[in-house]
Amino acid sequence: MKKIGLLLAILACISPDLFAQGAKNIRINEVMTDNESSIVDEFGNHKAWIELCNASFTTVNIRGMYITTDKSVLNEDLSAPQRQALMSLIPNGDESTLLSGNQHFILYCNGNPKDGSRHITAKITEGEPVWVALYDGNGVELIDSVTVPALSVNQSYAREKDGSANWVVRGSKNVTPGIANTPNINNKIARTKAEDPHGFAITILAMGTVFSCLALLFVFFRVLGLIMDHINTTKKIANAYPLKPVTSTITTTAKIGAEVLDTTGKLMKDGLKLKGIDKKVYIAVIAMAIKQYEDDVHDVESGIISIKPKSTTWNAPKFNNEIKK
Amino acid sequence: METFLNFLKGNFFDFLTYTGFANAEIGNLIMIAVGAVCIWLAIKKDFEPLLLVPIGLGIILGNIPFKADAGLEIGLYEDNSVLNIFYQGVRQGWYPPLVFLGIGAMTDFTALIANPKLVLIGAAAQFGIFGAYMTALALGFEPNQAAGIAIIGGADGPTAIFLSSKLCPNLMGAIAVCAYSYMALVPVIQPPLMRLLTTKKERVIKMKAGREVSQTERILFPIIGLLITTFIVPSGMPLLGMLFFGNLLKESGKTTRLAKTAGSSLNDIIVMLLGLTVGCSTQASEFLTVNTIFIFVLGACAFVVATCSGVLFVKFMNLFLPEHKKLNPLIGNAGVSAVPMSARISNNLGLEYDRKNFLLMHAMGPNVAGVIGSAVAAGALLGFLS
Question: Does one domain contain both A142 and A224?
Fold first, then answer.
């Protein structure tokens, strides 16, 4: 029950954000202020137009949002109804206001809403700069705005590509009302062709990318492999020769154990550096030392498990004398 | 009665104008013959039957002549036709990632994790792609078309389809058929090049068995691999994401059912639809062009360069490796991502010179690295050119 309550609380917290996020994905995408031979409305008239774009991949309904070209709405002293009076409403009743992902919507300016839902009253004067803003349904929250410079006939001011932050002036042949602002792909290809005609730059860059990716994988898994090897070796030793408690208290046993492991690690490290010593033999020697330590055969010196050479008398002169004789 | 006969006659002659016989062109017949050859190669010669049978039949299906302006909604390129709906998976590029899901679910990366330096061979073999890219530019192809053609050098059908559908959809049919044809011809193309570039002494180099790989490492591989590759090349995310997702399903040990489905039933369904629709897209009017000949020639060059660069790179690596860690250059060809065929070629050739020298597991390392490498290369080209 608590889990359900928690889930509901989380949903309640994030749902208003999700709705707001949907509206925020609507962008002013392209504006034409002086339309002489570009698109026509349903009555065959050339009118200034504003293109909106849903920059997300989800469907967003834009009905009830506001468009304005009147900068006085920026006055914070205005009440919501006063602001709304300065704006043009995107009306209900048109299915095309439901924009699916990456879909575009054209609004004709200087018009009469009675002509249809795409006609708004927002004023645009030909050849003059204009500020265009898109407000949310409350008329207070600014979603997007752009200051359009003075444009020549049939030019448009458009985002370089849908949703991007860069705006460019497009010539009459490159305006894209109602469709994506995508001539960038051709520009990119044309630029690649002009600046890298033999493909050397792309080859170096792309090959570099491939090698970087795979070299990073190599480095990561090489290091991981070494770590895993070390862990496995330690585990094998621990499993083969489990340490028994050698003192009456757990704390003391753990302390001694830690010292043993530390010493073993150092010895292994030193030993593996030496050439000519077989790794397995070395581990066996260490294991034997541990065993002796556990069985109290070994002398107990703090932190030291000795595998140092121990002199015996087997080669003492008194024994050797007999051989000499 | 006369009216009835006129009606009958009119309808009969009208019907005749709809038949394949009335609409056949020489191009259609040539392509039908090509389709038949593909099926023959697949069944008789055992050349990639799982791919060439659907592609071969698709070629025949796509070249059945019919009255295009009759509005029958049957052609691949007609909106709302059944074939058109199947074709969306190719055109929108969602079949290749699903195939990659299956590949991920079937691929064992253990050999690569055990000996990570093999991953570099997979990178080196991608030189074929860029060799072909420069050659295609020299032949006058646009950079986007050149990239689409060059990816054939990766020897990876789904990757070739994915990239060409994004960069040059009009060449996709030819590129796909070319990529799969050369994949089928791996046993013919690679061995002579491998013999040419290696000495007898090198061919009998015995490689040490890889170390044991823990499940933790096998689980970490798809996650780390995904993060590294997609952070560097986000445009390769659809392919790489699905590849590593499939592998995680396999290695997690908790999603065996899903991995089994992804690697068997789902993969089979997608391969059938992919093969059939790619075959269908090779309509004579689109396919029988000079460009197609160039694509096949460039594809062959790309494949040869990829194989050679893989083998030569192993020899280069051997210059820096101690005697007991040297690699057998015969595994270099496996850097192209024709899984597992090119690894099998390495193994067979190794056994030819030493009956006890089994190279299959060693060759699987560069082979699966090649899959990752070609997907990264495709992502990089997509990023640079789109």
Answer: no
A204 and A85 both lie in a single domain? no
Residue A17 lies in a domain: no
Q: Are B121 and B365 in contact (CB under 8 A)?
A: yes
From the list A81, A106, A116, the residue with the least C-alpha distance to A31 is A106
Q: Which of B349, B336, B346 is nearest to B127 (CA)?
A: B336
Residue B162 tokens read as: 């994915």
Residue range of the domain that includes B96:
88-385
- Rounded CA-CA distance B311/B375 in Å is 20
Q: Which domain holds residue A219?
A: 196-241
Start-to-end Cα distance in chain A: 96
Q: Is the dihedral of CA B151, B154, B155, B160 positive or negative?
A: negative
Cβ of A194 under 8 Å from any chain B Cβ?
no
CA distance B350 to chain A (A): 25
We report the CATH number of the domain holding residue A145 as 2.60.40.1260
* Phi, psi dihedrals of residue B123, rounded to the nearest 5°: -75, -45
Mutate to test the interface with B, among A102, A213, A233, A235 (most CBs of B within 10 A): A213
Which of A217, A227, A232 to mutate to probe the B interface, most B CBs <10 Å? A217
Domain count, chain A: 3
pTM of the complete model beyond 0.80:
no
Give the residue from chain B lying closest to A209, CA to CA: B380
**Please, which residues have CB within 8 angstroms of residue B262's CB and are 6 or more apart in sequence?**
B101, B102, B104, B105, B246, B249
Show the tokens assigned to A317.
């002169």
B342 within some domain: yes
In a domain, B20, yes or no: no
Same domain, yes or no, for A253 and A285?
yes
Per the CB < 8 Å rule, is B130 touching A205? no
Domain boundary among A194, A209, A232: A194
H-helix segments, A107-149? none
* Same-domain check for residues A93 and A201: no
Confidence check: pLDDT of A123 > 60: yes
In degrees, rounded to 5, the angle at the alpha carbon of residue B168 between the alpha carbons of residues A202 and B85 is 140
Q: How many domains does chain B have?
A: 1
For residues A162 and A213, membership in a common domain is answered with: no
CA distance B237 to B229: 8
pLDDT of residue A324: 44
User: ipTM of the predicted structure?
Assistant: 0.86
Q: Are residues A293 and A235 in the same domain?
A: no
Residue A316 lies in a domain: no
Let me know whether A203 and A253 are in one domain.
no
What is the per-residue pLDDT for B209? Answer: 83
Half-sphere exposure of A162 (CA within 13 A, CB side): 22
Closest of B309, B353, B348, B9 to residue B155, by C-alpha: B309
What is the separation of C-alpha B11 from the centre of its chain, rounded to a whole number of angstroms?
47
| Contact present, B90 and B262 (Cβ < 8 Å) | no
Tokens of A303: 């932190």
Taking the C-alpha atoms of residue B27 and residue B24, their distance in angstroms, rounded to an integer, is 8
Q: Per the CB < 8 Å rule, is A192 touching B143?
A: yes
In which band, very low, low, confident or very high, does the pLDDT at A19 lie, cut at 50, 70 and 90? Answer: very low
pLDDT beyond 70 at A299: no
Residue at B127 is within a domain: yes
Q: Is the pLDDT of residue A5 over 80?
A: no
> Is A206 an interface residue toward B (CB < 8 Å)?
yes
pLDDT at B57: 93
- Among residues B60, B264, B289, B278, the alpha carbon closest in space to that of B160 is found at B278
Integer Cα distance of B243 and B368 in angstroms: 11
3-class secondary-structure state, position B359? coil
Q: What percent of chain A has pLDDT over 70?
A: 69
- Candidates B117, B229, B235: best to mutate against A (most CBs of A within 10 A) is B229
Does B43 fall in a domain?
no
